[in-house]
Amino acid sequence: MTLIEQIFWGGLFLFVCLVLETIMLLWCADALQRHRARFQRYSAMVHQTGVLLISIGFVVAAHTAQIWIWSAALLLKAQTFETWNTAVYFSVATYTTLGYGDIVLDEEHRIFASFAAMTGMLAFGISTAFLVAVMRSGLAHGPFRDE
Asked: Has residue 146 been placed in a domain?
């Protein structure tokens, strides 16, 4: 891929992943609203645990899906890797910005793959803000209570 192609495709996959992140977090907020009455019957500790488990479940699912999207992009679109195992491993290391360095891409794919790291940084930031909002909402007023 040329530099322009790497930037275009990397930006496109980043956009798709962040749209997915947004949809998952909105779906999570909706699920929390629907289950509000169920959790309010229990003690505050059980209530908060239920809210957090649902929230964390959605966050983990969103990040996992994004890693699979980047794995597919590297395996199928960029044809960087020959096996799913290597593509997923590299995607996890890049998305989480661990970057072990045991797999180094050629110049035709480095910029493209770096968009996976940008996606991870943005998605983790958004997820963290969401979880903080869930906790603040729950600790200050009771989870998602109308005032």
From this structure: no
